[in-house]
Specification:
five-stranded antiparallel beta sheet; about 350 residues; about 5% helix; disordered N terminus; 28 strands
Length: about 350
């Protein structure tokens, strides 16, 4: 089941009020919980970690139906000055930009949307939308028709660019937009089974059943990166984190290739890997970054800090600086809906 964002936004908003295990077992249990949440929502959705195509992040609807005018009610002023600090108890509560609101029946928070310094990009009935710091919603492609595909969206950590997909009369295409200027940097056709895996320095990496391809918005050049058995986990600052066989296509040549796990992430400078631990291992021979709080669930926030949630009932959420590793407690999070969830992160 998915949620109509209109229902969510009519819930009463209120300010977040700050609060006055066995890790391998927790990881296994968490993965099972995510799979159950995804598989029970319609029976056909598969987790990004295991799927050939990604499922939707449904903040609104992802069923491809036409909802007419996209007049979503504003949620009120948000505060992005410390990053979005976006996390959720799936199906119950969302914390975003210093606010807390109900997320009744919310699904797939950890898949199709992306968090950017300019707000959250998500799909509403196939339309790419932006929730801005003002609390207003903007349809990024008002002239496009909705679609039922779920190709994800990705933000570029080196600028204001975001990549998302849109359905047109000619088929699916990826759009790269500068959220600071609202200019479209480029558009490129996509196969119907494509999934956007990364965006770095204006280069979009997208995956199909045939493998991973890079499209450079500056030159409009398209080059093969890797075959179908390779998965790109993350790309940041010229570092490509991959799982499976080493990428050997011409599109992989500009990158420093680092072997990793599919559910790992890179820090914004590409120098460290975030993977199920408060110890972030180096990709370039430098010292590891060690967060001063142990946690189980992690994400890189839009300001480059690390969001961390300690497993518990309730969970405790922290915002940790990089490279110092100093963590600030954000508050408790009830976990009625399963694992704590972060926007665009399935770990």
């Amino acid at each position: 089941m998915t949620t109509d964002l209109r229902e969510v936004l009519h819930e009463r908003l209120h300010l977040v009020v700050p609060p006055a295990g066995d890790l391998p077992a927790v990881r296994r249990a968490g993965r099972r919980l995510r799979r159950r949440r995804q598989l029970t929502a319609g029976g056909a959705a598969l987790a990004v970690v295991a799927a050939g195509t990604a499922v939707a992040l449904v903040l609104g609807g992802g069923d491809g139906t036409d909802r007419g005018e996209r007049g979503l009610d504003p949620v009120g002023q948000l505060d992005f000055s410390h990053g979005l600090r976006a996390y959720a108890d799936p199906g119950y509560v969302i914390h975003l930009g210093g606010r807390e609101f109900s997320a009744r029946d919310l699904e797939y928070l950890d898949t199709d949307a992306t968090a950017t310094p300019y707000g959250v990009v998500f799909y509403d009935a196939g339309h790419p939308m932006l929730l801005e710091e003002s609390g207003e919603f903007r349809d990024l492609e008002p002239g496009a028709r909705g679609g039922g595909g779920h190709p994800t969206a990705k933000a570029d950590s080196r600028g204001a660019l975001v990549a998302y997909a849109v359905s047109t009369d000619d088929g699916l295409e990826v759009v790269v937009r500068d959220l600071a200027s609202d200019d479209v940097v480029g558009r490129h056709p996509l196969p119907p089974d494509a999934v956007i895996d990364a965006l770095d320095d204006g280069v979009v990496l997208f995956r199909t059943d045939a493998g991973t391809t890079a499209w450079d918005t500056a030159t409009d050049r398209v080059r093969e990166v890797a075959g179908p058995d390779t998965r790109v986990a993350d790309v940041r600052n010229g570092v490509l984190l991959y799982d499976g066989p080493r990428p050997d296509g011409p599109g992989a040549s500009p990158y420093r290739l680092v072997k990793g796990a599919i559910d790992a992430q890179l820090t914004y400078d590409g120098s460290h890997v975030l993977y199920w631990s408060n110890r972030l291992e180096s990709t370039d021979g430098s010292a590891p970054v060690v967060l001063d709080q142990r946690a189980t669930f992690f994400a890189v926030d839009t300001d480059g800090s690390i969001l961390a949630a300690e497993y518990g009932h309730p969970a405790t959420v922290y915002d940790c600086e990089v490279p110092s590793g100093i963590c600030t407690e954000l508050g408790p999070l009830t976990t009625r809906g399963g694992d704590p969830a972060f926007i665009g992160v399935d770990m």
